[in-house]
Amino acid sequence: MGLALTFIGLDGPSCTEPVVKPIQQRRAMLGWKDFRYALPAWLRGTAFGLPFGIVPVGGSEVPTFLAYGTEKTLAKRRGDKEFGTTGSLRGPAAPEAAGNATTGTAMGTLLALGLPVSSTAAIILAAFQQFGLQPGPLLLTNNADLVWTLLASLLIGLLVLLFINMSLAGVWAKLLSVPNHYLYAGITVLGVLGPLAETELRRALAVSEGDVSVLWSSPFTIGLYLVLAAALVISGVQHLRHRRKAKLEAQTVAVRIPEHLDTK
Fold it and tell me: Residue 75 and residue 91: Cα distance in Å, rounded?
C-alpha cells in the first residue's frame, strides 16, 4: 500500500516541488480551538475502529481508510477548502483515532477471549503459547500478575511514546520540507529493500551465532561500505554545488537591471 501511494504521488503534477505550502506551526500542543475542531473526527474515527478490533477482518488498515474516506467526503459537502490543500486537522485525526481504537480493542479481545484479530495480536498469542499461557477468560484468574504487568507496560510505553512525539514534533514536521522526489525515493527504497535487508540480517546473525562483526569482517563488505560512502559523499557534493550555482544565478537575476528601466 505504501508503494502504491508513492507511485500515485510520482504520477502527480510535480515530483520536484510540493504542490502546496504547509502551514507554519511552531507549537506542538493543540489549542482549544483546534481541539474542538478535531474532536468530531476523533469520535468518528473511534467509532470506525472499535468494531474492527473485535472481529478478525485484517487489523487497522480497513477502518483507517474508511475513516479518511469519510472525512474527505464530509469535507467536500461542507466546502472545507483546507482539506487536501493547506491541510486540515481532521484529515489525520480520524485515521489515527481509528487505528488506535482498533489496536486497543484488539488487545482486549486477545486477553479476554483469546481471539487474535490482527497480525500483531497473532504474534502476541504465539508468544503466550510459547510460554505455556493460553489467553482467554481464565487468564485473569490464573495469571493475574502477568496480565497487570502487561497492561502496566503498555501504559508506560504510551507515556514514553507521548514524550518522544512531543519532543520531536518539530523534527517530524521538517519532513514536509523535503522535496517530493527525495521523499518518494526514500519510501520506495525502504519499502522494497527494507524487508529483504531484515531477512538477510537475521540470516547472517543466525549463521554467525549472534556475532555482529560478521557484517564488516570480510574485505568484500569493507570495500562495499567504502564504495557506498564514496557515492554518498559525491552525491552530497554535487547537490551542494547545484544549490550554490542556483543561488548565485538567483542573485545575479535579482541585481540585473531590466532593459526597459535602463536610462541612457
Answer: 9
Nearest to 52 by CA among 102, 119, 115: 102
Written as nine digits, the cell of 165 is: 512525539
State pLDDT tens for residues 58-86: 677 888 888 988 888 888 888 888 887 77
Q: Cα Rg for the chain, rounded, in angstroms? A: 25
| C-alpha dihedral sign at 213, 215, 219, 223 | negative
Q: Which candidate, 124, 145, 149, places its Cα nearest to that of 135?
A: 124
Torsion, Cα of 68, 74, 75, 78 (10° steps): -170
What residues contact 248, with CB distance under 8 A and at least 6 apart?
Answer: none
- pTM for the predicted model, two decimal places: 0.59
Is residue 12's pLDDT more than 50?
no
122: left (phi over 0), alpha (psi -120 to 50) or beta: alpha
Give the single-character DSSP code of 260.
Answer: G
CA atoms within 13 A on the CB side of 222: 4
Distance, CA of 42 to chain centre: 18
25 and 88 in contact (C-beta within 8 Å)? Answer: no
**What is the Cα–Cα distance from 32 to 137, expressed in whole angstroms?**
41
Buried b (16+ CB within 10 A) or exposed e, 17-35: eeeeeeeeeeeeeeeeeee
pLDDT surpasses 90 at 172: no
